[in-house]
């Protein structure tokens, strides 16, 4: 989804972002290459670039800033989970289809090619691969995309301040359920091999402890 209101990358300074991150998958490769940050603070994309570390939400913010430089709107979607951490993804649209970039402690919750017809379809692509360390499938709902340009007056891309307020706004946004109660009651546990694959290279300090 390119800008449609006359805005372009020259309207705001993004020159501090690496020039070689000019395609969505290259941004994903960068996020995969840096350590997962288990801290609870939420820092800006400039911080991620400087310190070379990020957790899920920081990674999504960084990806949204990179997408903005490419000419996309900086959009986030929240994937809400039960007995697990929520997951935040940066989404983009090409030729009418949605894809996503994400930083995750799980190998299975990262990049999605822009082949999905709707945000719901994109969210469902994560479902069978979204599980906690106990092997429970935990994804329950997704949010409408939130445009981060609404926070430009607070310099969300470069500030040294904590960005928890963005997370709060995303949490308050409308969410759409993916499953009925009957579906939830009939869910199977994740196979052991898939669970091991999902946790490959994870940082134990950043893993949610299910009840």
Q: Compute the separation of the termini in Å.
A: 39 Å
Radius of gyration: 17 Å
Q: How many separate helices?
A: 7
- β content, as a range? 15-25%
Biggest β-sheet description? 7 strands, antiparallel
- pLDDT averaged over residues: 94
Coarse structural class: alpha+beta
Overall morphology:
globular
| Spans where pLDDT lies below 50 across 5 or more residues | 1-10
Order of helices and strands: HHHEEEEHEEHEHH
* Strands, count: 7
> Helicity, in percent?
25-40%
> Can you tell me the number of structural domains?
1
Structural write-up:
- Helix 1 (24-33) runs antiparallel to helix 3 (56-70) and helix 2 packs across helix 3 (56-70).
- The protein has 7 helices and 7 strands.
- With 211 residues, the chain is α+β, with helices and mostly antiparallel strands.
- It has one domain (9-206).
- Strands 1, 2, 3, 4, 5, 6 and 7 form a 7-stranded antiparallel sheet that branches.
- 28% of the residues lie in helices and 17% in strands.
- The protein has helices at residues 24-33, 45-51, 56-70, 119-124, 164-172, 181-185, 192-198; strands at 75-81, 87-94, 97-101, 112-116, 139-143, 146-147, 175-177.
- The model is unreliable at 1-10 (pLDDT under 50).
């Amino acid at each position: 989804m390119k800008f449609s209101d006359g805005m372009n990358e020259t309207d705001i300074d993004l020159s501090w972002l690496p020039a070689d991150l000019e395609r969505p998958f290259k941004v994903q490769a960068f996020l995969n290459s840096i350590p997962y940050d288990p801290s609870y603070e939420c820092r800006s994309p400039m911080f991620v670039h400087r310190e070379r570390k990020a957790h899920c939400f920081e990674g999504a913010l960084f990806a949204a800033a990179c997408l903005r430089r490419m000419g996309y709107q900086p959009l986030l979607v929240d994937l809400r989970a039960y007995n697990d951490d929520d997951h935040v993804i940066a989404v983009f649209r090409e030729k009418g289809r949605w894809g996503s970039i994400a930083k995750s402690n799980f190998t299975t919750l990262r990049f999605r090619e822009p082949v999905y017809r709707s945000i719901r379809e994109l969210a469902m692509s994560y479902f069978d691969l979204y599980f906690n360390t106990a092997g429970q499938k935990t994804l329950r709902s997704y949010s409408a995309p939130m445009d981060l340009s609404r926070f430009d007056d607070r310099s969300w891309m470069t500030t040294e301040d904590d960005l928890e307020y963005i997370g709060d706004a995303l949490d308050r946004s409308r969410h759409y359920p993916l499953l009925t109660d009957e579906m939830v009651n009939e869910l199977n546990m994740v196979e052991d091999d898939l669970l091991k694959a999902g946790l490959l290279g994870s940082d134990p300090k950043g893993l949610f402890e299910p009840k």
